[in-house]
Amino acid sequence: MALRQATAGVGGQGALLHRWDPGAGRLTLVAVDGVDAGTARAWAELDEEEDVPPARALRRGVLVRVAGDSLGTGAAGTVAVPLTGAHGPVGALSVLLSGSGGPDDVQLSFLHAVAAWTAERLEHADGKPPHGEPAPGRERTVRTEELTATLAEAVTVQDVVQAVAQHVLSPFCADGLVVSVFENGRLTRVGEVGYPADYLKRFEGPLNAGLPVTDVLRTHRPQFMESPAQMYERYPAVTDRILMGTSPKMAWAFLPLIASGRAIGVSILSYNQPRPFDAEERTRLTGLGALVGQALERARLYDLEHARAQELQSALLPRTLPRLPGAVAAARYLPAGRGEQVGGDWFDVIPLSADRVALVVGDVMGHGIAEAATMGRLRTAVRTLADLDMAPDELLGHLNDLVSDLGEDFYATCLYAVYDPVGRTCCYALAGHPPPVFVHPDGTVLSPVVSPDPPLGAATPPFAVHELVLPDGSLVVLCTDGLIESDAQDAEQGLAELLRVLRRAAVRPARFTGADQEEDARGLAELCDTVVSELLPDRERTTDDAALLIAHTRAMPADDIASFGLPDDPRAAGQARELVRGQLSRWGLDDLSTTTELLVSELVGNVIRHARGPMRMRLLRSRMLTCEVYDGSLTTPRIRHATYTDEGGRGLQLVAALSRRWGARYLSDAKCIWTEQDIPNGSGQAEVRGRATSILHR
What we know:
37% of the residues lie in helices and 27% in strands. It contains 19 helices and 27 strands. The strands form five sheets. Strands 3-2-1-6-5-4 form a six-stranded antiparallel sheet, with helices on both faces.
């Protein structure tokens, strides 16, 4: 840790640590960071009299700076600091420099602070008692060690501010702390302790000449103000800009926060009473400023990447879920409370033909922007494949190919389910994913025990398909492993807890009636919140993101379904038109009769000319009118551009013009061509008929 801090503090390319053996009169290399082990072997054992930086620093007892590439690593120079303990020299710390300018005074002060900390740790490792330092100084040394260790683990900017407040204020008897970052010519406050809220705005905004903060950022040197009188004397402009107001502070330490040779901000320690700063305090505080600067720069980069990943994740997830005749759904995405937080969990609800609904949850393994971007690619791929009306196993097969093409290190889990409101069936396939949970209207909760296929990217299709019949009004609950699996419990225990929570939630038929989708959506949102709060009571301690999707399914009433068999001969088109005319009259949809007759006539005619039987027709009434024609052929229909002299080829153009949308889906031994039409409100059908007439004339 000391070598990493030393390298970062002076902008070097690597560091070496030697321990001194007074009995042998020799320096022994004990740690290396950023330098190849074979290259460092040249300095493995050094005599005290050798003319190399570590030995010279130990011999002279002062910092030694040497230009040139001492070890053949391409370094511009080497700076070595002796490690001196209470009982004499204990070793040397050397940093290989990457730039010709060399470290400045602030960086050298920081290097001395790291060296002092390292020397004391080496002494303790040797079993030597700590030197007789006065209690306050000893406390500062201990707190410096604790601060260094805490900053090494700090992830976010707020972690850094909390570490400074915890390990700096008390040892240096300070009463206030402000940490601000400098960016685009402005100061932005990122944390504070001990200041009135209405006073904090004074530490933000553009820099102005004649202020201590401006000098600190310009010179990279700290400023210590021991009293208001000293402040006024050095900076007359402060009278109006800083001290006027509600602040009770009477002394200040303005510390530059340095990272990679740049001043990235300033940390201000303040005191309620005037006080002097002795040389030892100034040295320690200067070193702390450099230490905090490195940690703050790293934390800012993390916060920036995390914010971008969150924005990307939010943009790629659905903003709202559709409310469909077959299902109403609610969902929750929860980033992790600790770690990199943003991951690759996603969910989706996709409308399919015949009022069927696809419910999807997935999880790209890993965390960060790359995983969030991969999630977006997979979600887009799922929607594209779903539009082709693929079966769950076939869709996961194509998705597995896509993940495999991303590289050997990419894996994802996925559950893809299709609910059919006509047959009340739920058909699903899963690749390395937690199984679905079903809640019946009577409160029965079950999760079928199935053997999941391996994750996408590691699986070998075909995928297993699972199907079950659901009572009308059932709930389908899908989630990712972040909701049910943690360090404290495995996935099986978490799934059992999810079942218990759903049972206790007392899901009754009266809670989700289906009569009011707005009310259903509110009830599902409340249920999502209940599940999340029960399974993840302390979200700040979670290390994985989680997704939850709950859908309330509704079966299509039998009165809204009409199915007819058709003969496998040219008479079928005429019979289909008669059946459509009669059924739409019974449904009160006579305005759709002409258009629908044209559609079924074209679809049945195509079967007679290009496919084979058996043939049947089905009409479905919900928000839209769906017309389906089934045949026994697996050929694919496609639109082609007919020329003026062609006698055919315009049928599917007519179908596309008359319908809201159309498509084909394939069964195990047959296919279905379907069309959808909006239920008329009195004006739309005239426009549709006009388009049809235009195409026929062409």
